[in-house]
Amino acid sequence: MRQIVLDTETTGLSWERGNRVVEIGCVELIERRPTGRTFQRYLNPEREFEPGAQEVTGLSWEFLADKPKFADIVDEFLDFIDGAELVIHNAAFDVGFLDHELSRLGPHYGRLHLRCRVEDSLALARQRYPGQRNSLDALCRRLGVDCSHRQLHGALLDAQLLTEAYLALTSGQSELGFASAANEGVQLSVAINADLVHARRPRIDISGEEAAAHEARLQSLRGKAAVCIWDLIGA
Fold first, then answer.
1. Helix (H/G/I), strand (E/B), else coil: 61
2. Claim to verify: residue 130 and residue 228 sit in the same structural domain
3. Which contiguous run of DSSP H or E holds residue 10?
4. In this structure, is residue 189 part of a structural domain?
5. In terms of pLDDT, which residue wins out, 65 or 223?
6. Which residues pair with 29 in a beta bridge?
7. What pLDDT score was predicted for residue 201?
8. How much is the pLDDT for 175?
9. 198 and 128: one domain?
10. pLDDT digits (tens, 9 = 90+) for 151-160
11. Residues designated catalytic
């Protein structure tokens, strides 16, 4: 499964008021492991920031004036994300802005949902931690992701932090050493011995309550991973 963790920075909070994207940051995951491939571009928004927005990102019109416009990088950006599942924190915000940018270039570019499935990590966090703060900063602190170096919002930096938080939120794979192994270039794989798959295994009688709990756990695993090993080897 290919996933792209994505974040944007903008000139303001509402694309309906003419605000534009000033930075896009993406991190690629394959089978939930970072590949090392990223996509990051600063963009000329062709307008000034709204009051307060510039302080959030630390970017300025002077810095962005010579940067490419969205139209200049759109094909490269779409090639990077096409067919992937997008993981976005508060997805409605970023998708709304990116769809608006695409619409400015003509109907032939379509919309993101026609190219990618979108998973909102904010919605996932609210399900797991109802009634609590679930901003990216709060989520990082809760899940043990170091964000002490995050003084300003940046699309690529936030996408990298969200990658760690998302993996911990959905499966805790980083606790198993997957993240460090990926950083060291270690190839992780699960090998299933065909003889063991078909070998006769002892049967143990369990209660209905235990069977229900087991099935609930399997459903949770199926929702978090492309393949549930139990389904491959049978009950």
1. helix
2. no
3. strand 2-10
4. no
5. 65
6. 3, 34
7. 42
8. 40
9. no
10. 667 899 999 9
11. 153
Q: What is the pLDDT of residue 173?
A: 43
**Is the same domain home to 155 and 124?**
yes
Same domain, yes or no: 119 and 42: yes
Asked if residue 91 is part of any domain, the answer here is yes
3-state secondary structure of 231: helix
Q: Are 91 and 112 in contact (CB under 8 A)?
A: no
Q: Strand 33-42: give its sheet, edge to edge.
A: 33-42, 21-30, 2-10, 85-88, 117-120
Mean pLDDT, range 46-70, rounded to an integer: 92
Alpha carbons 107 and 119: distance in angstroms, whole number: 24
Query: 72-101, pLDDT tens digit by residue?
Result: 999 999 999 999 999 999 999 999 999 999
CA-to-CA dists, residue 112 to 24, 49, 92, 126, 194, angstroms: 14, 25, 11, 24, 41
Do 112 and 157 sit in the same domain of this protein? yes
Residues 178 and 224 grouped into a single domain: no
Considering its fold, how many domains does the chain have in total?
2
Domain that holds residue 80: 2-183
Q: What was the pLDDT predicted at 176?
A: 36
